[in-house]
Amino acid sequence: MSRFGPGDPFLADCPARLAVELIADKWTVVVLYGLSRGPVRHGELVELIGGISRKVLTQTLRRLESHGLVHRHAYAEAPPRVEYELTPLGATLIDPIHVLTEWARANGEAVLDALDTDAEPVASGG
Questions:
Q1: Global pTM?
Q2: 102, exposed or middle or buried, with CB in 10 Å at 0-12, 13-18, 19+?
Q3: Which of 6-10, 35-39, 49-53, 66-70 has the weakest average pLDDT?
């Protein structure tokens, strides 16, 4: 008998699974963290994050905007100016991101050390 049931966040067609998949994307957490201190322009985010292309940043911002986590504000100015900021929903992710950041700081070396070991990876039973 399965220990999983309808509504489990990792089962298909569950809204929680969609949310987990969204934040598990390679750049989502980094972009959200980059927006955590207030509105930021696209070019500033590229410089702040480092390693992300303008195209991938644009795709990530659009996806986060369509899911209600980021707000895009285009100012009616010449030259045009666009800023991105967290929505109230997006801001609710900052505390969990800080917890993950602290875990990464505390355990990053152990994770790298595990990569350096010659031991066979342990398969999880299921």
A1: 0.78
A2: exposed
A3: 6-10
